[in-house]
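Exam revision sheet. Question 4 asks you to relate a sequence to its structure. Input first:
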Amino acid sequence: MGLVYAEIELIRGADIVLFQEGYIQEHQIRRVKVTALVDTGSYMLAINETVKTQLNLRKVDEQVAELADGSRVSLEIVGPIDVRFENRSTTCRAMVLPGDSEVLLGAIPMEDLDVIIEPKAQRMIVNPESPNIARKSLK
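Answer key, structure tokens:
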């Protein structure tokens, strides 16, 4: 199987709450669309420093992670982040990879989004076997 990428939208979770409470308007919610590597070998969402800055995400923890080359590094955990793909959404935390690293969509957010990988087409799709659950509006 080759590399699989998916277009996802990342939204600052705290902004969603501020909007729902009436403190900001919908157009003030910070969001960014990214092309993420669908990485079943990773368990979390992993973003880069640029995405962290664009969404103004706060550090909530720190965790040691093993990188693809086998090295172990301590990385910031930020959140919450709302992840959206097609008609699905989930809220999670993310590891912040150094520099301008590629965004990785790991197994845990993939499972919560109820998506699958179509190996022949090299794409991620909404699970056709699951009920058609539309994403709720921010309002």
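Marking note for examiners. The longest strand covers residues 72-85.
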